[in-house]
Design goal:
This protein is of the alpha/beta class and 309 residues long. The protein is 38% helix and 14% strand. The protein folds into two domains: 133 residues, Rossmann fold (3-Layer(aba) Sandwich); 150 residues, Rossmann fold (3-Layer(aba) Sandwich). Helix 2 links the parallel strand 1 and strand 2. The radius of gyration is 19 Å and the shape is globular. Bound molecules: phosphoric acid mono(formamide)ester. Phosphoric acid mono(formamide)ester binds next to helix 2. The site of phosphoric acid mono(formamide)ester has 9 residues, from helix 2.
Amino acid sequence: MKTKRKDLLGIENLTVDEIELLLSTAESFKEVSAREIKKVPTLRGKTVINLFYEPSTRTRTSFEIAAKRMSADAVNISIASSSAVKGETLKDTARNLEAMKPDAIVIRHSSAGTPEMLSRYVGCSVINAGDGAHEHPSQALLDLLTVKERLGRIEGVRLAIVGDIAHSRVARSNIYGFTKLGASVTVAGPPTMMPPGIERLGCRAAANMTDAIKDADVIMMLRIQLERQDEAFFPSAREYSRLYGLDADKLRTAKKDVIILHPGPVNRGVEISPDVADGPYSLILDQVTNGVAVRMAIFYLLLGASRET
Ligand code: CP
């Protein structure tokens, strides 16, 4: 087997070789989605369960499409119509799902550490699709793939991540992923959204957005969680946008050939202006396309590769 792991719980505990293997495998799977018949038999007979306790458009759909393109059976569990709303514990849910013999459970949950807890309850593979403010490993892998595809490398790349760093699992996974592969990462955001000691993860904390983006090769804008506005992490969306939103004026202070990423969903006019989100520097939809290939690679390396070595 090319990877000895049962689960993908985060980027923090992956080696450089494992990340590079995931990226090269994803590159090889991109071609499948360009075919007229977008299907390979690699995971025929395997069953994948998508267990999402939080909303998702991109991640859930692309895990499902990835499984189906590899001929696995994919089952989506909607928490609103599951027994979780009747008080069933995660452990009971896990044991009951395991009794149906899936090969992988893809889980998204609002609490950090839930995928790791689930992995102790079940023998099948567990894939973290986002746990609280902890990690979102498949997002970081698709971001790495998108940058590597455009710039030809990760080593030496300067990445600026701007926004709600404190609550962002996307920021955390990307800091781990990009620094492991030799990029330098700078983060910026309102003081209330910058966790003390963030530099311990290997990044630099900039004093403001202009400082963060001025030398960046890649700017990653984070979603502002408007549903949390009542917690007053910033005075108003307008104020936030003025100081930390990426618009044409701020973009003029960045490098001429900078590329722009955003994990979605986008709050247009808050963290990024519509003209920049849809403009020539934006790779937002390339990220989504690469999400399918990355998730195919994750399934392949956790569930399928052992039969081929
Ligand atoms: N990037 C991301 O996780 O998007 P979704 O919430 O739509 O899955």
